[in-house]
Amino acid sequence: MPKYNFRNKQARGLSGLKIVISDAHKGLVKAIKETFLNVIWQRLQVHFLRNILSKTPKKNTEGFRTDIKALFKILDINLARKMKDEIFLKYENKKKFQNSLNILDEGFEDAFAYLANEVVHSRLRSTNCPERIN
Predict the structure, then answer these.
(1) What's the whole-model pTM score?
(2) What Cα–Cα distance (Å) separates residue 21 from each residue in 59, 87, 91, 104, 112?
(3) Whether the Cβ atoms of residue 82 and residue 76 lie closer than 8 Å to each other
(4) Each residue's pLDDT tens digit, 57-109
């Protein structure tokens, strides 16, 4: 049996999902997309932000860190895409930011999926609030 299996949840009556928010583990994402057809998958923004910043050098990168954190506060997909492009223009020629920019580029659309669709709500950026309840 695969490591991630959500069919039992469907069998117990789980339905009507519009969005599933999770980490970007390949097996987990694959299972979500195979099980919950026509449901938006959203990458956890908090973890995605940490992934980007973990690849950012600590020394003399305050401006980059500030720009990245500001990006994650935007609640309009077009503005977010525009700011992402501006960040790339500003930092793409600086070698120390290449790993961070690659991560941003690869995961941006998944992390901002809730804005690109009509399921827009600021609490959907992360599952931290529901995790606290559970």
Answers:
(1) 0.82
(2) 32, 25, 29, 18, 11
(3) no
(4) 999 999 999 999 999 999 999 999 999 999 999 999 999 999 999 999 999 99
Residue holding tokens 């930011």?
97
| Nearest-angstrom CA–CA distance, 85 and 117 | 20
DSSP characters over 12-63: TT-----EEEE---HHHHHHHHHHSTT-EEEE-HHHHHHHHHHTS-STT-HH
Q: List the structure tokens of 76.
A: 């309009």
Closest CA to 67 of 102, 101, 113: 101
Structure tokens at 77: 């997909």
